[in-house]
Automatic annotation (TrEMBL):
Source species of the chain: Streptomyces polyasparticus
The name this protein goes by in its record: Phosphate transporter
Intracellular or extracellular location(s): Membrane
Membrane-related topology note: Multi-pass membrane protein
Claim: Cell wall biogenesis/degradation is one of the keywords in the record: no
One Pfam family matching this protein: PHO4
Keyword field: Membrane, Phosphate transport, Transmembrane, Transmembrane helix, Transport
Cited InterPro entries: Phos_transporter
Family that this chain belongs to: Belongs to the inorganic phosphate transporter (PiT) (TC 2.A.20) family.
Domain of life: Bacteria
Transmembrane regions: 6-24, 44-61, 81-101, 108-126, 132-153, 218-240, 307-327, 333-352
């Protein structure tokens, strides 16, 4: 550790800050459905998730290896590049958290790392095949696979429980939700905590404090696990609200199916070393569970905003990281400017978020500005336009129902004209 310089210490500290933001940014992945269905109280849910995230951090290092020695070339990477990558990832995490969008912390980190590497040594520093096979393909496949699995699991749960009383069924599935939420939290620790382990390991290799190809040291595993657990405990309440109430309305059966499906996908990917986004998996599972229930609705307006954020994550974090790398490479003063800019930006975003506080007391309340259902589509609007006006009888019935006096207008039939051939005074 004789090569552990001040710059390297700053990089490690910023990496742990990113891990902290990753924790509260992704708490919704494990606990949003459990909180929204009432299976657990909000504070108890995030506490359980935090503990299991910490445990999960010790279960595997496969994803950490993908980040530290697979995504970019270790040779030629300087600690300034790692610092810039983390700055881009942190800022994107905080911006999406501010607007309540569940974007991918994993892709923010990888986008920042790719952007800073390209700005430093060019595209040759990025292993393109690893980006495609272990980042881009899983990013597309994860929500689709998790969504289909959750949809099928939801239909199966309703089919199996059709002869069970509603109260008994809901109680049983709430217990299942708690177990499946714990499984997602454990999976999140095995996947996301390792990303920070990988980035710190890469910084140690770049700074000469660790040999290339080394596994993360024990102190790196412990510190990364503690940082993500602390962030998880604080709870990303804005994103929990979006995941739990913004995408669809979930019943306990759907919550159980969504979380179980997402956990299976995440654990399988961690075992294979895929740097999978837990956000993509859990969001896809929630939408799949919403579609799996008969009469269930997915609010596609919210989902569309989320998809846009997913598409922007890699390039946006990469561009911010590239700018930070350009400043940081100027020397010590450049590193200081980047560090100060990060601190000021984080403080500014946090202060702005205080204008409308979302916490455990109001996380299940839907914002007034948030539509309960999607806006009418083209077909609905067209049908309404050609619907005949209501009849007088219908209007009268509606008025009587609302205790509003009805003014009846009687239009008399026209009086037939007198027959000019009939003598005056004669009767018909």
């Amino acid at each position: 550790m004789e090569h552990f310089t001040l710059l390297l210490a700053i990089v490690v500290a910023v990496a742990l800050v990113f891990d902290f933001t990753n924790g509260f940014h992704d708490t919704a992945n494990a606990m949003a459905t459990t909180i929204s269905t009432g299976a657990m109280k909000p504070k108890a849910a995030v506490a359980m998730s935090a503990v299991l995230n910490l445990v999960g951090a010790f279960l595997s290092v496969e994803v950490a290896k993908t980040i530290s020695s697979g995504l970019v070339r270790e040779d030629g990477i300087q600690p300034e590049v790692i610092l810039a990558a983390l700055v881009g990832a942190i800022l994107w995490n905080l911006l999406t958290w501010l607007v309540g969008l569940p974007s991918s912390s994993s892709h923010a980190l990888m986008g920042g790392l790719i952007g800073a590497t390209v700005a430093s040594i060019g595209f040759s520093g990025v292993n393109g095949d690893v980006v495609v096979t272990k980042v881009l393909i899983p990013a597309i496949a994860a929500p689709v696979v998790a969504g289909l699995a959750a949809m099928l699991a939801t239909r199966l749960t309703y089919k199996l429980g059709k002869n069970v009383g509603e109260k008994s069924s809901a109680k049983g599935y709430r217990a299942g939700q708690i177990a499946s939420a714990g499984l997602v939290s454990l999976a999140h620790g095995t996947n996301d905590a390792q990303k920070t382990m990988g980035i710190i390991t890469l910084a140690l290799v770049a700074g000469g404090a660790l040999a290339p190809g080394s596994n993360p040291p024990v102190w790196v595993i412990v510190s990364a696990g503690m940082a993500i657990a602390l962030g998880t405990y604080l709870g990303g309440w804005r994103i929990i609200r979006t995941m739990g109430k913004g995408l669809t309305d979930l019943q306990p059966q759907q919550g159980f199916a969504a979380q179980t499906s997402a956990a299976a996908v995440i654990l399988a990917s961690s075992n294979l070393g895929f740097s999978l986004s837990t956000t993509h998996s859990c969001s896809g599972a929630v939408m799949g569970a919403g579609l799996g229930r008969k009469g269930g609705v997915v609010r596609w307006s919210t989902a569309t905003r989320m998809f846009v954020a997913w598409g922007l994550t890699l390039p946006a974090a990469g561009l911010m990281a590239a700018g930070a790398e350009f400043v940081a490479r100027q020397g010590d003063w450049g590193v200081a400017v980047v560090a100060v800019f990060l601190v000021v930006s984080c403080a500014g975003i946090w202060l702005y978020s205080r204008r409308q506080v979302v916490d455990h007391t109001n996380v299940n309340e839907v914002e007034p500005a948030t539509p309960v259902a999607d806006e009418p589509g083209v077909v609905t609007t067209a049908i309404a336009a050609v619907t005949p006006p209501p009849t007088v009888a219908a209007e009268a019935a509606e008025a009587l129902a609302s205790d509003v006096p009805v003014v009846k207008t009687t239009i008399s039939a026209p009086t037939p004209a007198a027959d000019s051939t009939q003598p005056a005074g004669a009767t018909a």
